[in-house]
Amino acid sequence: MHATLDDLSTVALDGVLDDAERRLGRQLRRDDGHFSKCNGTAGFGTDEATWVRIAWRRTAEIDSQAWTGYEAAAAIEGVPRPEWSAAAVWTDDARGVVWRADEMTLVEDGALSATGDITTDPGLPEQWWADLQTALTNLAAHSTDRVSMSQAHLTRRIHEVYGKEIDTTITDWACAHGDLGYANLCGPGLSIIDWESWGMGPVGWDAACLWSASLTVPALAERVQAMFSDILSTRSGKLSRLLLCANVERAFRRIGKKGPLTDTMAERATSLIRELQ
What pTM was estimated for this model as a whole? Predict the structure, then answer.
């Protein structure tokens, strides 16, 4: 039963949406919902021109950090994003899950990719890029005890794929969004959405995520690398990129089928390992 909840567009949600409306005091525009195909979330506009995001967790597996990411992000300054205002949480004994509905301001400009994949340059204005650079600088300066990417996870993944002779020690840390790709970036006016995973990570982690997401459009990847060259060229920036290469290689080894970036990331990994040594 849980597996079907990974794509809420395939689930009879009327009862869940009734609960969300009653608890938040909002009417959802149910005919215009936006559904993730893999992470069990859905979003709806409301009669008050706000946005409500619906998510679930198995009752015994609630990650308190991810569960409260939106409300915790309310303390971050200087980063354009939806402004969180309220949440409702309730149990669903029949499904063995807990539902959460977060209400926030509605972002006028949509996400640059519905799936995270990007095949053409979105042609973003220069102001968008300048605003992104400022936003990530401001975010990096934010103080938090949340963790987006830990030393242990980075080390485990890189050593699993490339061997334990690589020194993966990160000495420079900063606050990061943690999932900075084109599904979580809006334009042409910049807004950064989906704040479940934010917290401390290696310096350059966000830039590395955006670099990885851009590699299917080489000119776009070159722009990202040039814009964030100061941090992507640091040891932590290189290790961040190597981790993303390791994730792609690990997926290939697991399923035995190449993805769009398997060969590209393998080439990048060879170069990064040489530089790190």
Answer: 0.93
